[in-house]
Amino acid sequence: MDLKPIRMILRSRRTLMACAVGALICAATLSQAQEKFIVVASTTSTEQSGLFGQLLPQFKAATGIDARVVALGTGQALDMGRRGDADVVFVHDQAAEEKFVADGWGVRRYPVMYNDFVLVGPAADPAKVRGKDIVTGLQKLAASGAAFISRGDKSGTHAAELRYWKQAGVDLAAAKPAGYRECGCGMGPALNMGSSSNAYVLTDRGTWLSFKNRGDLTVLVEGDTRLFNQYGVMLVNPAKHAHVKQALGQSFVDWVVSAPGQAAIAAYKIGGEQLFFPNAAR
């Protein structure tokens, strides 16, 4: 029996299969090359408040760029930028952001928006902190020994909290107040812990407004000018990390501080209440 024709057919099929696999690999590679995306290291408050659900679809519609967000505490987000694991950093600790740029990790810091911090706690307010003065409120809280949940995660909110305790004359390094607990977690989990244990928590207003599991918690301290909470955005310096997508990342920075980006921020509301206030042009 002559097997030559059969061998020719098998070789032909193998050749066709190899070509088909090669075509699929080429198509996948081309698709990845054509896909435009950046990694944005940001705070948990911008994600958990729902803001990015408002902004990112509009950014993609305007630019064709997909922004993939990694939500962390501000300190961790800045560390991502230092490692070159993100193209853009969008956070809320101005002193740390300015140092990030001064140390050469970021190209330039742009102010984007602001809201404020609030101190929430049980409606009965056993520590009697209710009012507009965050420093006085924390002094009363420390003296009472009431439960307080700190994020303890080097986030922008945690950095602000540490400033307020210091202004209140409380040296956390020497001795923490009796009810002080650190969770090492994001804003949402910290609020969940506060709700379940009827504890006081410092939170950004955006996350608080979007938080559903409030239990008996309510806003007790607000309106102090020291509670101002500014957000900034920075392109990670491509001189430090050559793989940073400079043009795409800068497109995100430019859009979020542009009139359409600022309008999108202002339009985001929950229950008719605005969560963030754009101030890039100021």
UniProtKB/TrEMBL annotation:
Keywords: Signal
Residues making up the signal peptide according to the UniProt record: 1-33
Pfam families on file: PBP_like_2
Domain PBP residue range list: 34-259
Highest taxon of the lineage: Bacteria
InterPro entries reported in the protein's UniProt record: ABC-Tungstate_binding (IPR052738), PBP_domain (IPR024370)
Protein name in UniProt: PBP domain-containing protein
